[in-house]
Amino acid sequence: MNLDRYLDRIGFVARPSAEPDVIAALQSAHRLAIGFENLDVMLGRPIRIDASSVFDKIVVNGRGGYCFEQNRLFGDVLAAIGVANRPLLARVRLGLAQDVIPPRTHVCLLATIAGGKWLVDAGFGGSDLAPLPLEDGAEAQTADGARHRLRRTGERGSLEGEWLLERAGPVSATDGRAAAHGDWQAQYTFDLAQVVPGDLEQANHWTSTRPDTRFTSLHVASIPLVGGFASMVDRDLTVYGANGTERRVIADAADYARTLREVFRIAMTEQEAARLPLLR
Fold it and tell me: N or C terminus: fewer CB in 10 A for the chain?
């Protein structure tokens, strides 16, 4: 972990410490600087989640990544500044009926901050949500106008998970998976079971290779904005902000690469973009 180079990548000028407000600011800077994306999957490249591969991809090469990459990087950063943390596996509930139990395809972090346990997540394709204390009923509001709530919902190790993260807010400030909702909608469930590297490798492999899933059939990019959210699914770009929602269709490889750079802060050349199945 080259902490200075990482801080450069996210534009964080202060020296980070283990205080809750500093960790929140650090995570927010990460979220606003590093886009969420699955484009290596669509290019037929393996998703490697060891520390050096993730650092090279996101920090050195200016790319984004999905949760297994983003939270690996952020977990390494937290460890480098003295914040103990470990990964948790979660079931993404967005857009699913209540009786559907999806596989564990999301990774988040459990961190010890100021002597307490906190849910930390730099890699969910949604709002710029600050770390939440692991307490039943903990709430936070994000700059896109959404509210978020953490609830304890089940017994340890149960299929429904021990905790539920919910969101209530404008559907335009999401990546398109959320149904229209003004009240609470499930985001993901998780428990506190120990997760070992092999669990992460297995879940990452399933997520990046299973046919006909979101990450193997769609080109996805998203990023929180200051007071808004941007999402691009295949050629459809949606940008939500204070002035409303703007939508347009991406024209070609040059437009796609430019939009990745300018909106999602993801470095990709026009030549690479032209190799995406979407643009062949």
Answer: C
pLDDT tens digits along 97-146? 888 889 999 999 999 999 999 999 999 988 889 999 999 999 998 888 88
Dihedral sign of CA atoms 222, 32, 127, 149 in order? positive
**Is-catalytic flag, 106?**
yes
175 is catalytic: no
- CATH code for the domain in which residue 24 is found: 3.30.2140.20
Q: Pick the catalytic residue: 121, 128, 144, 191?
A: 121
pLDDT tens readout for residues 39-69: 999 999 999 999 999 999 999 999 999 999 9
DSSP-derived secondary structure for 216-265: HHS-EEEEEETTEEEEEETTEEEEEETTEEEEEE--SHHHHHHHHHHTT-
Q: Which of 30, 40, 67, 128 is catalytic?
A: 67
Domain count, the chain: 1
Cα separation, 173 vs 240, whole angstroms: 6
What string of H, E and C letters represents the secondary structure of 198-213?
A: HHHHHHHHHHHHCCCC
Q: How far apart are CA 216 and CA 71, in angstroms?
A: 20
> Are 64 and 37 in contact, with CB atoms under 8 Å apart?
yes
Tell me whether residue 121 is one of the annotated catalytic residues.
yes
Q: Which domain holds residue 18?
A: 3-279
Name the catalytic one among 30, 106, 148, 219. Answer: 106
